[in-house]
Design a protein that fits this description.
The complex is a heterodimer.
Chain A lengths: L1 E2 L2 E2 L8 H15 L2 H13 L7 E3 L1 H7 L2 E6 L9 H14 L4 E6 L3 H13 L2 E7 H6 L1 H9 L3 E5 L6 H14 L4 E3 L10 H20 L4 E5 L4 H7 L8 E7 L4 H4 L1 E5 L2 E5 L24 H9 L2 E6 L1 H15 L5 H16 L7 E6 L7 H8 L1
Parallel strand pairs in A: 4-14, 5-6, 5-8, 6-7, 9-10, 9-14, 10-13
Antiparallel strand pairs in A: 1-2, 3-4, 11-12
Helix pairs in contact in A: 2-4, 4-5, 4-9, 5-7, 9-10, 13-14
Chain B lengths: L8 E7 L6 H10 L5 E4 L10 H12 L4 H7 L7 E4 L2 H7 L1 H10 L2 E5 L5 H14 L2 E6 L5 H10 L4 E4 L15 H9 L6 E4 L5 H10 L2 E4 L1 H8 L4 H17 L13
Parallel strand pairs in B: 1-2, 1-8, 2-3, 3-4, 4-5, 5-6, 6-7, 7-8
Helix pairs in contact in B: 1-11, 2-10, 4-5, 5-6, 9-11
The chains are: A alpha/beta, B alpha/beta.
Enzyme class (chain B): lyase
Pathway (chain B): Amino-acid biosynthesis; L-tryptophan biosynthesis; L-tryptophan from chorismate: step 5/5
Protein name (chain B): Tryptophan synthase alpha chain
Chain lengths: 373, 259
């Protein structure tokens, strides 16, 4: 249940039996070859796995590195989120729950949830902060096209953290028929472990495709694509780098705290109140990070750094123009740090660098248009 | 002990610093016959609270409310005090410092809704050392063995959550409330107080039939948010007091299920 000092299950008593049921069902399913085979089939036939590993020849030449990109942007629905959601939706069905709920920020997890629900015949309700509903109207429509109900959340800062709180409130009142499909490696036990396991396919595939690099780099909001990537390289000499948004850098600028059922690094003010994160990428607008990242930070197994919105915009354009790949703004954080570290010499010339490109940038085109005007 | 079992106990709630004159609300509750007052220390992300307490918390935080100031502002209140807040604020201050502050200001109890048995051992010990009762919650879905463990480890009283949901007013008392209170009463000598969704004198009487007392929060904070003055909010608490003492909802009116 714990990752060093982090993790745990800080939920009200009414949610304890529901969390225990999810933990038991996941342990049972993950040990069941039948469940693993069904998930594997869905990942191949529906999500398009394995995703390719692209040697980024032009970017490599430009930076004096050997960069490979794990192409989660090519996964169905446009990001790594589908890996986790297919796993949890199968689990919900196995538990006999006809309905799943989810929180979403940029809308990527919401779209993935709506997709998996449609595929598996489940009802889906997605909670989304009112501010994000306005910023990401295309994804809202996309979720509704897929048959999901989207509930705008007007409480608090009206972003991802409030959508997460509202999903938890809704779950308390509907545990009997509803499964909560958490979108990142956050939340009460077993979610951080379970979501990491469902995302570990990223790292396992990448290691099989490209071996062990000198550096593994991934962006961190809640931290699911990074956790899924890192988990396959923990037993190697690879240096693991998690890249946060400057305005949402809980691991580099936050302190341990308790939010949404877990203890981890959280952005907080001088009185312990959780503060709102600010990033050009809505998907990194979360003031906390998964408990296992907190543990990797404390133990030194992974290092966490942050980049600014300006660096991210420059990296987005650069990758598009050198490799013909438009990354999601979230994923561009990893690119941005590699570009900076190549320039400063922190990444030695010739080093091999695996970057997880967690999603594609189509959803960010309106934001990019605004930023370039 | 914060509460006795010789009459039905009444624990009204106020969000700390919700208004300039919020300590007058505490005094009005005391005058109205509250047995103790629950003082909420507002948190930015209250995941077990419905819209009313969320709004109350938001209003208080927007006014610059802090846990420290609330705890010291209410020191010496003419009624026993029970603090309630989410674990983040306890962890931020540090459990030892937090409990010492509560104790210095005369708080007798502490409710932390997002701290279940698995996580509460440390705070139980720290609170006990500081002379503060850590009150544990029980829910309608809590299995029997867990109810027994909650009954064994809770201090002061047991907070029985009457329904599966967040805080807030409901039209009727939840059907499982009485069964939960009974299940707890057979396992403990501590008073069992029912909370969540109790908004009217009639519901108070219903709830208190199976429990030792009640907690009322959202119904009071809705009035405060609507601009009702402390004395008038106190008058509503007095109506709850009369209902609990007489076992009838209002003068001469017998609750529905007794007719």
């Amino acid at each position: 249940m714990r990752f060093g000092d982090h993790g745990g299950r800080y939920v009200p008593e009414p949610l304890i039996p529901a969390c225990e049921a999810v933990a038991e069902a996941f342990a049972d399913a993950w040990a069941d070859p039948g469940f693993r085979a069904e998930l594997d089939t869905l990942l191949r036939q529906h999500a398009g796995r394995p995703t390719t590993l692209t040697p980024a020849a032009n970017l490599s030449a430009d930076l004096g590195l050997r960069v490979t990109l794990k192409r989660e942007d090519l996964a169905h629905t446009g990001s790594h989120k589908i890996n986790n959601v297919l796993g949890q939706a199968l689990l919900a069905r196995r538990m006999g729950k006809p309905r799943i709920i989810a929180e979403t920020g940029a809308g990527q997890h919401g779209v993935a949830t709506a997709t998996a629900a449609a595929l598996l015949g489940l009802d889906a309700t997605v909670f989304m902060g009112q501010k994000d509903v306005e910023r990401q109207s295309l994804n809202v429509f996309r979720m509704r096209l897929l048959g999901a109900e989207v509930v705008p959340v007007h409480a608090g800062s009206r972003t991802l953290k409030d959508a997460t709180s509202e999903a938890m409130r809704h779950w308390v009142a509907h545990t009997e028929d509803t499964y909560y499909c958490v979108g990142s490696v956050i939340g009460p036990h077993p979610y951080p472990t379970m979501v990491r396991e469902f995302q570990s396919v990223i790292g396992i595939e990448a290691r099989g495709q490209g071996g062990i690099p000198d550096y593994v780099v991934a962006c961190v909001g809640g931290g699911s694509n990074a956790a899924g990537t890192f988990s396959a390289f923990l037993d190697t000499d690879a240096t693991l780098i998690g890249v946060e948004a400057d305005g949402g850098a809980a691991l580099t600028k936050g302190a341990p705290g308790v939010l949404h059922g877990f203890r981890g690094y959280i952005l907080q003010d001088a009185h312990g109140q959780v503060v709102e994160a600010h990033s050009i990428s809505a998907g990194l607008d979360y003031p906390g990070t998964g408990p296992e990242h907190g543990h990797w930070r404390d133990s030194g197994r992974a290092r966490y750094v942050s980049v600014t919105d300006d660096e991210v915009l420059a990296a987005t354009t650069h990758l598009a123009r050198t490799e013909g790949i438009l990354p999601a703004l979230e994923s561009a954080h990893a690119i941005a740090w590699v570009m900076r570290a190549a320039r400063t010499g922190e990444l030695p010339r010739g080093a091999s660098v695996l970057i997880t490109l967690s999603g594609r940038g189509d959803k960010d085109v309106p934001t990019l248009m605004g930023a370039h005007q | 002990m914060i509460f006795t079992r010789d009459h039905k106990q009444l624990l009204p709630y106020v969000t700390g610093d919700i208004t300039d004159d919020w300590t007058d609300i505490v005094a009005a509750y005391a005058d109205a016959g509250a047995d103790a007052v629950e003082v909420g220390l507002p948190f930015s992300d209250p995941t077990l609270d419905g819209p009313t307490i969320q709004e109350a918390s938001f209003v208080a935080l927007s006014r610059g409310a802090t846990a420290d100031a609330i705890i010291s502002d209410v020191a010496g209140a003419p009624v026993p005090l029970v603090a309630s807040t989410y674990y983040q604020l306890v962890a931020y201050a540090g459990p030892e410092r937090f409990c010492a502050r509560l104790s210095r200001s005369g708080f007798r109890g502490l409710i932390v809704p997002d701290l279940p048995l698995e996580e509460s051992a440390h705070l139980e010990a720290v609170a006990a050392d500081a002379g503060v009762d850590l009150v544990l919650l029980a829910a309608p879905v809590t299995p029997a063995a867990r109810l027994a463990e909650i009954a064994r480890r809770s201090r002061g009283f047991i907070y029985a959550v009457s329904l599966m949901g967040t805080t807030g007013e409901r039209d009727t008392l939840a059907p499982g409330a009485a069964a939960l209170a009974r299940a707890l009463s057979t396992r403990t000598d501590l008073p069992v107080l029912l909370g969540f969704g109790i908004a009217t004198p009639e519901q108070a009487v219903d709830a208190a039939r199976g429990a030792d007392g009640i907690v009322v929060g959202a119904a009071l904070m809705r009035r405060v948010l609507d601009g009702v003055q402390p004395a008038a909010v106190g008058a509503f608490v007095a109506s709850l007091r009369r209902a609990l003492d007489s076992g009838v909802a209002a003068d001469g009116e017998v609750p529905r299920d007794r007719r």
